Amino acid sequence: MMQRLISACLLALTLAFGAACAAQSSAIPAGTAEADQFLFERGQEELKERHWAAAREYYRQIVDNYPQSPFRPDAKLAIGDTYIGEDTGESLVLAANEYREFLTFYPTNPRADYAQYRLAVAYAEQMLAPDRDQSATRETIKELQLFLDRYPTSSLMPEVKKLMREAKDRLSESSYRVGLHYFRVRWYLGAIDRFREVLESDPEFTRRDAVYYHLAESLVRSDKKAEALPYYERLLAEFEQSEYIDDAKKRVAELKTPAGK
Hints:
Distance between the termini: 84 Å
Oligomer: single chain
Order of helices and strands: HHHHHHHHHHHH
Number of strands: 0
Structural class: mainly alpha
């Protein structure tokens, strides 16, 4: 009990000392004419060095103490960037909050597109593996879609489209794996429904060759061979390289061979 009390006291002293050092290091020198500019430039220097907490202290002073500063919007965004830089579960939530507040306070700011994009990034950094909960993935897609709707001419469009593809692939892969599980336990009706759902919701899924193949196989094994053939053919038409090509070619040959021959 005493040891834990001592440890808690030491931790409190360490945090207090760190806060005091941060406050002292971010103090404005006496006689500084444009304090907000000074703070912003120092914040940028610390950000470049990946000193997230130190940079955030400079930016936070601008946001809290200089409401009319022309640097305030950029400082608000930069605070979010420092949180993303830290890349922890808590910091990513705080980053999302900063970007949302920016969009609320500065909806017409020239950098609103950046705020919307980075809001999506804050969620993307929280995306889990395909076999785990996909809530963050869905939030990422939602925020990216808002970007596409609101900022169609943004210079950030290439990055947004790339991230959208990554997020959609993650979500589609998750759904595909559920279908694959159904396929392996021979519940072909459930597999067919899940595979079709993937193709309908995300026709550009990067690994749709696997979906085509297992959907077609599920249909064959459900005695729906006529429905299966087009999916094998789509696989062969859309993919020059795939682990399923050889098996798909064999199936196409089988299905096109008249009965009794």
